[in-house]
């Protein structure tokens, strides 16, 4: 007896059990449909069913396969037939319908390597890598030996789960069984080690491969690109050409990723030109979207725009690339205009769209527009998404509404560490130090371990709120209670905290005793504190350090100049300004945004382009008179 599921179903209680498993096989529906087919006039033979199943497996024709399954059940063709049950399980596995495949698989007693391999492959390729590894273990326990069709998918499962130790063990089995020379197994090893981030071992495997195909080269190129070694990716591409291989779409995708990371637009344009000359990716939206993303990352937004406009069928990724590209390049207005165009055009936004749009709202403090986006995404069902919820918390806090930010945070069904960090950063941005500390206490109560970014935000909040004692306590608690070594950002916050409070000597002591070399940001924090407390001597020391480390940073020159001006040392003021002119440094003009009647207005320093300029300057003049009458004196600080 085969013991298959179908032989069990065909017992006297077949009709009752068929109803029980209707959710799995939908037998009644497909039997009714199949009876309309001419083949229903007489039952197919076992060989005919096997040939049809193989054809449906190759083409992944799920509906036709289910109809054939129903036909075989109706005519008891599956009863005691290991051959057909094996083919049927393989068919469902190939179509990715693993629950169906699993039920049939469990009912087969005599499982051959073909069936084991199809099931392992099905689990590995359909988001169930752990089940793939468990089945691999069961296969070995049953005495079935793995072969070159088994290992590629076992290695894929190890890579997807980042199980480095198990992956290396499987690699050793590959070597023991002499399968390392198989090109498919070798390519799977390359892919697995690339996922582990171990490109050293991947290169060793690659160098030892007796035979390499285009997939081998592509795997190495994409592996280096994904592991932030873009230079090595280009080197492999060069060697690939010398070896006589021609790039395909996958090759160029890896190179575009490398170009985007390195921000090397010249090489990116060369890849683009190569694709055009060789007609690669002409009708491939994925490739076009990668080109758009590369141009956006390289700050060539107009090149990205021209390419985007030429795309006839724009998918969600195309829109997302341009929307986030404009936001990253500081043009929040164009980003929001594109989103409106996308929504009106009927393209469905996803979580990436909303994150990019909310980020654009952050840049221009467009609170009301952000609220309308919040309403829109809630209607679309994205309000329960953790990442979108975190972006909302960030948008509201940067838009000036801490109450809305906290409300969204409290309403989130699940919170990630980034969500907690965003709320802490929001309080820090508004100088609400005690509330930021309360979030840290809440994290502890919820067994959430804060990371260095959370502590940076809390220390920054303490600095803006003047909570010196609390800031000191958190700084040392971070080391003792959480066993976390302070990073440069934490030292920078402590220098700022102590400096703002007037503890300049203690701030200097931290700089001198810290484990790292002080950065320009740390010296800049001390410079700002020295200016605030009119310590000219210390300001000069800190400024010189900043000049040495960041000679093109104009803000430190302005800060030192203002320090001299406060002490009426006009000769020194002129000396610093002369240095700025001699070095050709320019300060970026200040920019402010005001949202009124659902419209965001942008103003630059000295800007007279607004249509209500005369009324605006008249009101400013009026305000200055009121301030003067009230006794307010303007200060260069």
Defining key terms:
mainly alpha, elongated, two-stranded antiparallel sheet, disordered N terminus, 70% helix, 637 residues, 2 strands, 37 helices
Give your account of this protein's structure.
- It is a single chain.
- With 637 residues, the chain is mainly alpha-helical.
- It contains 37 helices and two strands.
- It has helices spanning 5-9, 14-20, 22-25, 27-34, 46-59, 62-74, 82-94, 98-106, 113-125, 129-141, 151-161, 164-176, 183-196, 199-208, 214-226, 230-242, 249-262, 265-277, 285-297, 301-310, 316-328, 332-344, 351-364, 367-379, 386-398, 402-411, 417-429, 433-445, 452-465, 468-480, 488-500, 504-513, 520-532, 536-549, 554-566, 570-582, 613-629, and strands at residues 591-596, 599-604.
- A two-stranded antiparallel ribbon has the order 1-2.
- A hairpin with a 2-residue loop joins strand 1 (591-596) and strand 2.
- Helix 27 (417-429) runs parallel beside helix 29 (452-465).
- The protein is elongated and about 105 Å long.
């Amino acid at each position: 007896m085969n013991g298959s599921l179908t032989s069990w179903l065909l017992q006297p209680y077949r009709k009752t059990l068929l109803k029980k498993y209707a959710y799995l096989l939908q037998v009644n529906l497909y039997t009714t449909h199949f009876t309309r087919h001419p083949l229903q006039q007489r039952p197919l033979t076992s060989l005919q069913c096997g040939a049809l199943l193989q054809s449906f497996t190759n083409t992944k024709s799920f509906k036709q396969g289910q109809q054939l399954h129903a036909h075989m059940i109706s005519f008891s063709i599956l009863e005691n037939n290991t051959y057909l049950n094996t083919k049927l399980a393989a068919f469902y596995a190939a179509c990715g319908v693993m629950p169906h495949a699993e039920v049939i698989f469990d009912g087969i007693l005599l499982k051959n390597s073909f069936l084991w391999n199809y099931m392992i492959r099905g689990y590995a390729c359909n988001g169930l890598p752990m089940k793939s590894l468990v089945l691999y273990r069961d296969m070995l326990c049953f005495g079935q030996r793995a072969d070159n069709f088994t290992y590629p998918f076992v290695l894929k499962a190890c890579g997807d789960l980042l199980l480095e130790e198990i992956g290396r063990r499987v690699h050793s089995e590959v070597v023991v069984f002499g399968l390392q020379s198989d090109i498919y197994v070798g390519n799977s090893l390359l892919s697995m080690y690339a996922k582990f981030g171990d490109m050293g071992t991947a290169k060793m495997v690659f160098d030892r491969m007796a035979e390499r195909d285009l997939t081998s080269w592509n795997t190495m190129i994409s592996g280096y690109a994904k592991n932030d070694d873009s230079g090595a990716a280009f080197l492999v591409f060069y060697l690939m050409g010398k070896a006589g291989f021609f790039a395909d779409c996958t090759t160029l995708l890896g190179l575009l990723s490398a170009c985007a990371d390195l921000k090397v637009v010249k090489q990116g344009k060369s890849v683009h030109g190569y694709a055009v000359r060789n007609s690669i990716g002409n009708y491939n939206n994925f490739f076009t979207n990668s080109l758009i993303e590369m141009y956006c990352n390289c700050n060539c937004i107009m090149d990205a725009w021209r390419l985007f406009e030429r795309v006839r069928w724009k998918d969600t990724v195309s829109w997302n690339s341009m929307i986030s590209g404009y936001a990253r390049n500081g043009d929040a207005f164009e980003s929001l205009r594109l989103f409106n165009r996308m929504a009106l055009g009927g393209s469905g936004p996803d979580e990436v769209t909303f994150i990019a749009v909310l980020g654009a709202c952050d840049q221009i403090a467009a609170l009301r527009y952000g609220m309308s986006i919040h309403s829109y995404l809630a209607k679309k069902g994205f309000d329960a998404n953790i990442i979108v919820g975190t972006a909302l918390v960030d948008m509201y806090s940067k838009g000036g509404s801490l109450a809305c930010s906290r409300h969204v945070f409290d309403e989130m069904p699940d919170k990630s560490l980034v969500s907690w960090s965003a709320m802490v950063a929001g309080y820090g941005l508004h100088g609400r130090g005690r509330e930021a500390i309360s979030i840290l206490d809440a994290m502890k109560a919820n067994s959430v371990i804060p990371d260095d970014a959370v502590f940076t935000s809390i220390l920054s909040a303490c600095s803006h709120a003047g909570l010196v004692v609390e800031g000191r306590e958190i700084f040392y608690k971070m080391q003792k209670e959480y066993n976390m070594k302070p990073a440069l950002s934490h030292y920078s916050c402590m220098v700022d905290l102590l400096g703002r409070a007037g503890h300049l000597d203690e701030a200097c002591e931290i700089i001198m005793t810290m484990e790292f070399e002080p950065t320009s940001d740390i010296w800049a924090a001390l410079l700002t504190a020295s200016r605030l407390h009119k310590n000219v001597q210390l300001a000069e020391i800190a400024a010189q350090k900043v000049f040495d480390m960041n000679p093109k940073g104009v803000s430190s020159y302005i800060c030192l100049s203002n320090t001299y001006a406060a002490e009426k040392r006009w000769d020194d003021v002129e000396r610093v300004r002369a240095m700025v002119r001699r070095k050709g440094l320019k300060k970026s003009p200040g920019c402010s945004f005001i949202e009124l009647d659902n419209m965001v207005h942008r103003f630059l320093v000295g800007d007279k382009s607004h249509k209500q300029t005369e009324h605006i300057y008249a009101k400013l003049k009026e305000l200055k008179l009121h301030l003067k009458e009230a006794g307010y004196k303007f200060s260069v600080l």
